[in-house]
């Protein structure tokens, strides 16, 4: 009987169904609620999905409430353990879309994950490995979030950022040899037929 809504202004709002009356819910009450489904990108239980310079467009939680899938502006599909508290939570990253992922949803039995791309307008279907598979164990394992080393299949933006060596290459000469004539505009009058 309660709907959770996320706004473009990064507000998390609650409304009573079916009347639509706005409700105020404390964090303590919020964490006790058992939601029928979860597609929220905001709130204390999923604050760890937000990287520094990105926008999370969509989220979908498995029915067992253990795995949260997100889609972001960089075309990444990420899997987080749920709840994902604190900053810079560990995740497993998958690439498939050319740009932003506009939506993600788990199938009814949580065996498939569907993702929709914005610019590429592609619908991708991802299969979830059975428990016991190497990557599934890594995502479902309960490791501490303060261990920033890439371990057990996790990708950590924070750990990678510390070791990336940004070198800018400046070319004083053209990389490609340009051949042929330069295009130029010519103005010609066309003959008028009478």
General description of the model:
With about 190 residues, the protein is mainly beta. About 10% of the residues lie in helices and about 25% in strands. The chain has 3 helices and 10 strands; from the N terminus they run E-E-E-H-E-E-E-E-E-E-E-H-H. The protein has a 4-stranded antiparallel beta sheet with strand order 4-5-6-7, with no helix packed on it. Strand 2 and strand 3 form a beta hairpin. About 10% of the residues have low confidence.
Strand content: 25-35%
Please mark out the parts with pLDDT under 50 across 5 or more consecutive residues, or reply none.
136-152
Task: Give the neighbour order of strands across the main sheet.
Answer: 4-5-6-7
What is the CA-atom radius of gyration, in angstroms? 24 Å
In short:
By secondary structure, the chain is mostly beta strands.
Comma- or semicolon-separated keywords:
mainly beta; 194 residues; four-stranded antiparallel β-sheet
Topology:
Elements: E1 2-6, E2 12-16, E3 22-23, H1 27-32, E4 56-61, E5 67-72, E6 76-81, E7 92-95, E8 101-106, E9 112-117, E10 123-127, H2 134-140, H3 157-163
Antiparallel strand pairs: 1-2, 2-3, 4-5, 5-6, 6-7, 8-9, 9-10
């Amino acid at each position: 009987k309660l709907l959770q809504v996320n706004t473009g202004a990064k507000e998390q709002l609650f409304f009573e169904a079916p009347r639509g009356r706005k409700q105020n819910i404390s964090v303590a009450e919020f964490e006790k609620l058992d939601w029928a489904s979860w597609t929220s990108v905001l709130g204390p239980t999923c604050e760890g999905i937000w990287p520094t310079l990105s926008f999370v467009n969509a989220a979908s939680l498995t029915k067992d409430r253990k795995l949260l899938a997100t889609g972001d502006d960089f075309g990444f599909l990420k899997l987080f353990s749920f709840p994902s508290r604190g900053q810079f939570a560990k995740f497993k990253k998958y690439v498939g879309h050319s740009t932003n992922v506009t939506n993600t949803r788990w199938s009814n039995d949580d065996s498939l994950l569907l993702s929709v791309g914005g610019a590429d307008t592609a619908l991708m279907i991802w299969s979830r490995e059975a428990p016991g598979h190497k990557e599934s164990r890594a995502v479902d394992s309960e490791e501490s979030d303060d261990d920033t080393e890439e371990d057990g299949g996790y990708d950590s933006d924070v750990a990678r950022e510390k070791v990336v060596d940004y070198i800018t290459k400046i070319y004083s000469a053209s990389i490609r040899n340009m051949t042929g004539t330069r295009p130029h505009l010519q103005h010609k009058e066309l003959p008028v037929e009478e």
